[in-house]
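Hey,

Quick one before I head out. I ran the complex with zinc ion overnight. Inputs first:
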Amino acid sequence: MPQDSPQNGLLNPFELSADDGYTWLKGNLHSHTTNSDGKPSPQERVDGYVGQGYDFLCVSDHYKITRTDTVTCPDDFVLVQGAELHPHNPFGGQTHHFLAFNIREDMDTPKMPPQHVINQVNEQGGNIWLAHPHWSSVNIMRDTLPLKGLAGIEVFNSTCRRASRGEGSIHWDDWMSLENKLYPALGNDDSHALDADNRDTYQGWTWARVKERTPEAIMDALVKGAGYSSNGPEIRNIELKRVDDRSDGKRIIEATIESSEAQRYAAISETYGGDYYLQGETFERATFRLRPNARWVRFEIIGPDGSKAWSNPLDLTLFD
Ligand SMILES: [Zn+2]
Ligand SMILES: [Zn+2]
């Protein structure tokens, strides 16, 4: 693969200041209702996430758009209109699972090649993401690399965690490495059950850094990397600084991370990994050095109970 810089530098949401009007919104962009194979009605689903203090939700039923004007919610709650789409897979793997947001027109996706589905979503002004790749046994090189125009990847999925295949971070790294391109991620519930079942609701979420409470602002932020995913920890700050002090000319970046209580910060890049931890102790802030000459980095913040937050990748070639 080419050793030049990643094709898109994503935003660092922690550089988007409250003084400039930015605020954090918490949401879940993957849920099902009686319009597909979910147990609650669309209104019950919306009421559940409103009641849990979320700021935004997508009811993403299989194959078909659940219209946001068929449910009601408080004025300051944002409904993102979308669907989970399943084009057939001509490349040999399982049927695709894609999440499409800010779309208006339904498509007969089982009859459509995946690239046509992606193109139609993008032509509608929407965006489309690779869902739960581990659960679907996605092989990035076989199933995803031939496709162009996906916005990013679902790195965490609560209902797939029940099958022990809820995390897609290896697929994420593989995809970015193969394409030499940075992709943002989402953390979602993929809720099918009722709240009372306590199976797959309110366990994974995405934070978006926005100026406006609109579906367009939220998805625009997430496509640009201005957010992060979590099933527990809160990330409060990520700062990168170039601090070369070596005689061999290698570029060294120092990262400072602040979060809720953590047992470990992992820095994942296209080169070797690195991490920060204190034996037997937890912490809420750390400064540590990244691998020399890494081209991008993303961070995993691991809480005391093993829960995780995933930052989006940051382009380190901007420091060259
Ligand atoms: Zn799915
Ligand atoms: Zn789903």
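The pocket of zinc ion (ligand 1) is lined by residues 84, 97, 131-132 (CB under 6 Å).

Talk tomorrow,
K.
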